[in-house]
Fold this sequence. Notes:
alpha/beta
Amino acid sequence: MANVAVIGAQWGDEGKGKIVDWLAERADVVVRFQGGHNAGHTLVVGEKVYKLSLLPSGIVRGTPSVIGNGVVLDPWHLKAEVEKLRDQGIEITPDTLKIADTCPLILPFHRDLDALREDASGAGKIGTTRRGIGPAYEDKVGRRAIRVCDLAHLDELGPQLDRLLAHHDALRAGFSEPAIDRDGLIAELREIAGFVLPFAQPVWRMLNEARGRGRRILFEGAQGVLLDIDHGTYPFVTSSNTVAGTAAAGSGLGPSAVGFVLGIAKAYTTRVGSGPFPSEQDNDVGERLGTRGHEFGTVTGRKRRCGWLDAVLLRQSAAVSGITGIALTKIDVLDGFDEVSICTGYRLRGETLDYYPSNAQDQAAIEPVYETMPGWSESTAGARSWAELPAAAIKYIRRIEELIQCPVTLVSTSPEREDTILVRDPFADQKLSPGSAAAGASLSPSAAASEPELPAAWSAAWCRRSDRSSAPWYRASARSCRCRWCPHRAPAQWYPRSHRRSACPSCASDDLGWWCRSTAAPFARSQRSESAWHRQGTR
Length: 539
Ligand code: GDP
Ligand code: IMO
Ligand code: MG
C-alpha cells in the first residue's frame, strides 16, 4: 500500500496540516483533492509557524504539490498565499506546485453571495467561512463555472459568461445588489491569469505517470467527514465530499490509487460554525479544552466549540470513509484532567442508538451517553515514544480504538512537527528509519518493518476467542505477544490462558489481557485467509 490519504474524521481542524507536513517527508507528491481556501492549517516547524488554506501542506517541506481538479480555486487568494509563503522562505515555482487546469474558479461574486445568504439566514445560518465555497461548487455542478483553463481563453468566454451572469444577476437582484460588471470581471481575470497559468496543467497526466513509476502519493483532505455534503451533519456542512473516496475523483486517479486512509481525530472534539454537536461542553470543561488547545479558527479567528470525544460519530466517520487507521492528535490537551469522558451512545425517546440519526429533529432530541475514565496528571506534551505516555493515557487511546473499531496508528503530542508517535507506518511498504518511527513505537526497526500490525479491535476479539477455543491458527502462527496497554512484549508462551489476567511486568496493567502480534499470521498471507480470520475472530 504505497499511497496514503489523510482526511479529517471529525468537524475539521483535527491537525491534518501537521500530519501531512510530517508524512510529506517520505511522499513523492502531495495532492489536495477537495475544498478550497475555507481550510486553515497551522504548521509549526521549530520557531516558524506557517498558515495554509489553499496550498497543499507538503509545500512547506518542498515536496512537489498538486491542487487537484476537486478543489475550487480563488486565484487572488492563491496569489496572496503563495506570496506570503515565499516571504517566509518557501520556494514555490511551477516545478514545485501544479494546479489542475479543470479547477473551477471562485470569483468575487461567489464570496459576496456567500455572505449575503448568511446575513439573510437569521437563526438558520450555517456559519460558513464566507469565502464563496458553496456558491462556487453550485456553479460547478450547475455547469456554469469558469475554470482555470478558461483563463487562457478570456476573449472566447462570451456564451459561458452569459449563462453565469444571467444566473447571478437574478440572485443579486433578489438581494438588491447591482448586476455584475462584466468588463470589470474580465479585466480582473486578465490581470490574475498571468500569475495562475504557469502553474496550470492537466495534472491527472503527471499523477498517473507518477503512479505508474511507483511514486508515493499523499492525498490531503480538507475539512472533515462530519462536514461532508452527504455523510455530515447536513445542512451544517461544507459543499464538497470530504470522505476519502473523493481523493480519486478529485485528483484524476482511480479508486485503487488511494491506499491507506489515515483519519485524523482530536482526542476530544471541536466544531466551528453552527450545527449539532452532541458531546459539546458549554461549560468549564469546554472552556478548559478551548484554552489549553488554543481552539480558535485559523481562517476566521472564530472560537471553536469544544466537547468530549464522540466515539459514535468517529466510528461512523471511519466506516463511511473506509479509514484504515486513526492519527489521534492533541492528547496533550487532556493532560491534568481528573477524569476524561467519551460519548459511547445516544438515547433517543427511551431507545439507545449506536449511530447518529439522519433526521434533524432526531439529532436535536438525542442525549449523549458517556463513559468516564481516570485522567492523568503527567504531561504527554512533546512525547515522541509510546513509552513516554502515562498508562492512563494509553488506556484512553486503547478504549477509543475498541469503541471506534479502528486502530490508532499515530499519536500527536504537540503542534511541533516531530512530536509524533508512530505506531504503524501508513506507507506500509516503507522501511522505518532507525531511531525515528520504530523507536516511537518502541519496536526495533526490523520488527516494525516486518510484523504486520493487527487492527486493535480485531486483535482483541481474536485473542479473546483464541483464549476460549485455543484456535489452531493462533498456535501455528503467533510468535510474540504484546501487552495491550504498554509496549511490553513477551514471548508467545507467556500468552496462554493462565497469564491472561496477570499483571503486565512493565506497566502493571491487569486489564484486558494480552494483545497478540503475529509474524506469520494466516490473515497476512492472503485476502482469503484474512476474511476467514476476521469472520472467526469477531463472531
Ligand atoms: P487542520 O485544519 O486539520 O490542519 O488543523 P488546524 O491547523 O486548523 O488546527 C489544529 C491546531 O492544533 C493547529 O494550531 C496545530 O498547530 C495544533 N496541533 C496539531 N497537533 C497538535 C497536538 O498534538 N497538540 C497540540 N497541543 N496542538 C496540536
Ligand atoms: P480545515 O481544513 C473547520 C465549516 C465552516 C462552516 C461549514 C461550511 O481547516 O479542517 P464553508 O465555508 O465550507 O461553506 O462552511 O464548514 N468549515 C470548517 N470547519 N475546519 C475547516 O477546514 C472548515 N472548512 C469549513 O465553519 O461551519
Ligand atoms: Mg483547520
